[in-house]
Specification:
Number of helices: 7
Low-confidence stretches: 20-32
Structural class: alpha+beta
Largest sheet: 7 strands, mixed
Number of strands: 7
Strand content: 15-25%
Helix content: 25-40%
Mean pLDDT: 75
CATH architecture of the largest domain: Roll
Amino acid sequence: MLRSRRVRREEPLETGVPEAPEPGPGSVPEPGGDPEQQALTADSVGLALLVVLETLDPAERLAFVLHDMFAVPFDEIARIVDRTPAAARQLASRARRRVRGVAPEPGPGVVRREVVDAFLAAARGGDFEALVAVLDPDVVSRSGGGADEAPAVVRGAANVARRAIMFAPYARSVRFALLDGAPAVIAAREGESLSVMRFTIERGKIVELSVITDSAGLAGRDLVLLEE
């Protein structure tokens, strides 16, 4: 509707009201200024803003747009997003920081890949302290185990770190994958069977490792190779 004014200028209902002066070069229209100029300005920044808004979660995006763009009170926003007014205010504040250029926090998938990368790098380098740092103190490692035998279980960060260093040759060349939706790596040395290591990660730490060394252990499971 605003753009249509370029083609069909509408006559004001009242006469004698002076038109607002055109904004000078480089000026930024203030809220409540000329609607046509605001529409043109919105066109120039709209795509960039949409890209940024896509990085927000739905509640943050809603709180930010309603409050900062439409001046909806936080009491009303709280009812819409099913939060307290204080929580709604925090949602808008976080969104505002991101829109102003603060990089969004990495998503869970990125964090988990970083944890796996750190584990592999430490294992390859034989760095015991770095391995312990990426493992939960109560981490559990399970390996082997077939139809007729129970898997070997190792508990505790120090014990699992020592075992990881022993099997470091398998970490030299791996393929990243998802096994039943959890991060995993596939490794195989020439002349040896396939080995798959599945990671369970919570709060940025590895809490469980499952090492599968035979194809029977993968039967019926969802294994998806990831692009490098």
